Amino acid sequence: MSNVLEIVTFKLANGVNETDFVKTHDAFQAYLDSMPGLLYRSLAKQADSDTYVDVVYWASLADAERVQQAFATEPRCQALMTVIDADSVVMTLNHIIAQTPCNG
Fold this sequence. Notes:
It comes from Pseudoalteromonas fenneropenaei. The chain is of the alpha+beta class.
């Protein structure tokens, strides 16, 4: 079983500013931190657009899928979706074939 890299791109919902997003995001991050299999996560904003990039390393595909399934019922996941433009979300799950250690 290999580690999995999840990449999600999205934009904020109309009328949501970054300050409001960060408040909701912090609760979501606390939820992710409690999930088994989370190895590493970075959230970034593209320099030339209003698109966000969420990069998550999971120990396994099952770990990533467990969180995906929780979006339907977990309040912190649902709260996050209220500040994100659902139509802009693009998510991929990728099996890692090579990587270096994270030193930073």
